[in-house]
Each structure stands twice: as structure tokens, then as C-alpha cells.
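queue> pop job 88
queue> type: inverse folding (structure -> sequence)
queue> payload:
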């Protein structure tokens, strides 16, 4: 495919076919300057010729971008109509809006509509069938007097500031956690604590397959 110089000289531009289409030459060397000269002349010729339509009797300032986009009718923010402000719908359009809101679509909620799951017990995901089942125990808090920052720093130093699953080192963008191996938050012995990155720690608590794969390797 032949590509001609965009300055308007009509000469063919040599193309390096190995280069990507976006990086191929559009002008003959030095001819792009002629293009800019043409644009500058166009700006001078069109300057102070187009008045703002709003009636302010001010001229629109011609810019380089107008050469490609086109000259606007209004000066920026000069009584330019914004959306539907100050207007009213016609009777025909009001009827159309009313008909569209009557619940003709099967997916739309009608007046007095009840969801299918309201009042229905889901036995298939209840109790130990739920993927987040933790043996029936409620949330267990930490003993902050023992499980404090000093203990966390000792465990971090012992594990060389490194996650014991993915072996990533501590970073500003990768926060580290101290994990209880037996998931008993009151057991704060050093053998029961291990350093994990935030990603691996969340996977161990929320992903059963991940937990089965790596949990046995956490014991020191």
C-alpha cells in the first residue's frame, strides 16, 4: 500500500515494513515543517472572523486543534445549552416514559413483587455444608497482652522477614501477617506462630484447597 506525504506535496513516503504501522513515517523528511507552516497560515487567515452565536459580540479564538476538529460556534461556557436544562418533555414522550416504567420487562420489579429467596431456608448451604464453615465456633479474639508487636517482631526476625509459603520478602506494598498454625488465637507459642504475606494468609483462611496443600508444611 502506497502512503503519500501528508504535507500535501503528493510525493510517496518510503515505508519500513518491519516497523509497526503506528511508527511508520507519514511525512518525507523535513516536509512535516511545511505542514505546520500551513496550519499557522490557516490560523492567521481565520482569526477574528467567527463571532460567538450567543450574542456576546466576541470573536472565537482560533487554536491549532480547530484545524482538525473544526471551529466551535460558542466561546467556552458562553450560554451553551447544557443537556435538558430549562426544557420540558412533549406529551408524546411523557406517554412513552410512562409505558416503559409499567413493568413490561420480565426482569423489572413490579409493585408488591417478592424475591424468590424470601422466607426460604437454604439447607444446601446451611451449617457444615457452607464453604465458610469453621466447625461451629464463633469469632475468637486475640489476647493482646501476649500477642503484641514485640512478639510479632521476634517471629519476623526468626523467619528472616520472609513469607514461609511464597518466600517473598517484606515490602512496603506487601504487608506481612503472623499466622496461628493450629488457628487457636490463644496459643501464642513461637512454634505455633509463622510469618505469612497478606495474600497467602487470606488464602489459608478462605481457600480450603490451598489450606490442604500448604498447611502441613507450616509446622516447624
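queue> result:
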Amino acid at each position: 500500500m502506497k502512503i503519500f506525504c501528508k504535507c500535501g506535496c503528493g510525493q510517496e513516503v518510503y515505508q519500513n515494513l518491519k516497523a509497526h504501522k503506528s511508527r511508520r513515517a507519514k511525512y518525507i523528511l523535513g516536509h512535516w515543517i511545511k505542514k505546520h507552516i500551513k496550519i499557522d497560515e490557516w490560523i492567521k487567515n481565520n482569526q477574528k472572523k467567527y463571532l460567538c452565536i450567543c450574542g456576546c459580540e466576541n470573536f472565537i479564538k482560533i487554536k491549532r486543534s480547530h484545524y482538525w476538529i473544526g471551529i466551535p460556534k460558542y466561546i467556552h461556557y458562553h450560554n451553551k445549552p447544557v443537556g435538558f436544562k430549562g426544557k420540558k418533555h412533549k406529551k408524546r414522550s411523557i406517554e412513552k416514559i410512562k409505558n416503559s416504567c409499567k413493568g413490561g420487562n420480565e426482569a423489572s420489579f413490579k409493585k408488591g413483587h417478592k424475591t424468590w429467596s424470601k422466607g426460604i431456608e437454604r439447607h444446601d448451604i446451611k451449617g457444615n455444608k457452607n464453604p465458610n464453615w469453621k466447625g461451629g465456633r464463633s469469632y475468637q479474639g486475640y489476647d493482646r497482652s501476649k500477642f503484641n508487636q514485640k512478639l510479632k517482631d521476634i517471629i519476623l526476625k526468626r523467619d528472616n522477614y520472609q513469607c514461609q509459603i511464597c518466600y517473598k520478602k517484606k515490602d512496603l506494598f506487601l504487608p506481612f501477617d503472623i499466622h496461628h498454625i493450629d488457628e487457636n488465637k490463644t496459643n501464642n507459642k513461637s512454634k505455633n506462630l509463622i510469618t505469612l504475606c497478606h495474600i497467602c494468609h487470606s488464602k489459608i483462611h478462605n481457600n480450603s484447597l490451598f489450606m490442604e496443600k500448604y498447611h502441613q508444611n507450616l509446622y516447624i
